[in-house]
Write the C-alpha cells for this entry.
Amino acid sequence: MRMETARPAVAERQSNLALRALIVGGGIGGLAAAIALRRVGIEATVFEKAPQIAEVGAGLSLWSNAMVGLRRLGLEAAALEAGSVIERVQMFLSTGERLASMNVVALGRKAGAPSICLRRAALQRLLLDAALGDDPKSVQTGRECTGFEAGASEVTALFGDGSRESGDVLIGADGINSVVRARLFGEARLRFAGYLAWRGIAEGMASQLPGREPFVSVAPGAHAGCFDCGEQKVYWFLTANSRAGSRAGFLGNQGEVIERIRGWRVPLQRFVEATEEHAILRNDIVDRRPRRVWSAGRVTLLGDAVHATTPNLGQGACQAIEDAVVLADSLRRGASVGAGLRDYEARRRRRANFVVRQSYRMGTFTQLANPVGVWLREALGSTSWAQKRTVRLFEHLLQADLPELPDQAAPHRSRGS
C-alpha cells in the first residue's frame, strides 16, 4: 500500500505566515513533528509533562518507510550509524525448526532505504538534539497539558501549573493515553490484545545471533525475537498470553521469561540472562481501535495518540515519523490551518489504520494456543503461499512516497508565557 504523494499546492502560503505549532508530547512523534514543521518554516514548541526527556524503552525497528521519513528530516545517516541494518529475518518454531526467512535487503531496494534496529533511547536522543537546535526553549519539560481552548483564530494549550500557551495549531502527540484526544473525542477504553510482552537490551552481545541475522520464533501462546540494535547490544522480546494487569511473581521478570522459554531450541535465553532484572520491561499489549476523524478545528492528533498499534509489525514509531512528515507538508501547502489538517488526515488515515488492523490480526495469529490453530500455523507457515503473503504485506508497509520537505528553517521567536 503506497501512500499518496502530495498533490500540487493550491497555495504555498503557510510557510510565509509565521505559524506557531504547539506540540503536546515529547516522544518520537512529537519531536519528529517539531523537526518537520521547522523545516517548512513553521515555528514549533514541544511541551512534555515529564520533568526531563529520559532515555527509556528497549529496542525498536525502523523499517524502510521510517528511514525515508528520517531522510526527509535530515537524520537518516545518524540513525544508520546508531543502529544495525536488518538484512534478513529468520523465522523458527520454538523447537528450532525453520519456518521461513524474509530478505529485508531486497525489500529495502524496492522501498529506497534500508531497515534498521536501534535502541529507542538512541532514536529519541537523535530527535531531541535536532528538535532543540540552538533554542533550549523549543522543547519544554515539566509542562503537563490538561486541556485546550480553541478559537477561530488561535488555539490555547492549558497547563497544570496554570500557565497558557497560544498558537495557530495544536498537535496532540501525547501517546496512547492522550489528554488531547480525550478532550477532542471523549474518553475511550484501551483494547487489550490478550497478552503481555517482556523486552530488554542485552549488553555486549552484538553479532552473537546465529549467522548474525535476527530471528523471530513462535510457540503455543508465545512469540519472541532477537535483533542486533547497534552499540554492541541485542534487543530481545517475548510475548505470552495473559490476563490484563499481571505482575511479576517471586521469580522476577527475568526468571519468568527463562522459565517460559525453558526447552526452546532457539538462542534466546543467553540474551535474557545478559539483561539485568531492573532493565527488563513488562507491559500489557494494548492498542486503540482505528478512528476515522483525527482533527477538529485547529487541533489534530499524531502517532499513538490517534493510531496506537500493537507491536507485531514493528510500525509504531515508523507511522509516527510518517505522520510528522505528511503533517508538515500538508500545513505548508494548505490555504488555511483547517485545510492543512484535513489534508493531513485524508493522506494518513487509511494507511495508519491499515497498520493498526493488520498488526492486531498478526498478533492473534502469533499468539495462537489452541492445538488445532497451532497445528495449522505450523503446517501453513513454511508454505510458499504463506511466505508470499508475508512478503507482500511488508512490501506494502515498507514503501511510502513521503514528500520532500524544503528546508526553510523557521526562525525562533518568543510568544506566550
